[in-house]
Amino acid sequence: MINYLKSIAVTLITILIGSIIITILNYFNILNGIAHKIIMLFIPIIAVSIGSFNIGKRSTQKGYIEGIKYGFIWIVILLIINLITKNLTITSIIYYIILLLTSILTSVLGINTRKN
Description:
Blueprint: H1 2-27, H2 34-58, H3 63-85, H4 90-112
């Protein structure tokens, strides 16, 4: 449980830092328009990948199982936020599937890079 909380904290910090950097770049008109939107889509994917990699590296079970659990944690968190804001669309569901697949793949990579 502690490993999940640590990885969730790492993911949240990564999202926060990435969002601050992108906001600063957008404020100074260095990055705007479609490039801004694309990078804002990739920040949570990268953050979940980092957290999932950490989970996989600390795991004693199969990597894909840990990735599924970690991915579902994030999907539940994001679904709750979307249901509160009433912003649930088919595009967001596809995005959650991409987050889940990314979580599974990077958790498997994390468990494979672990030293025995």
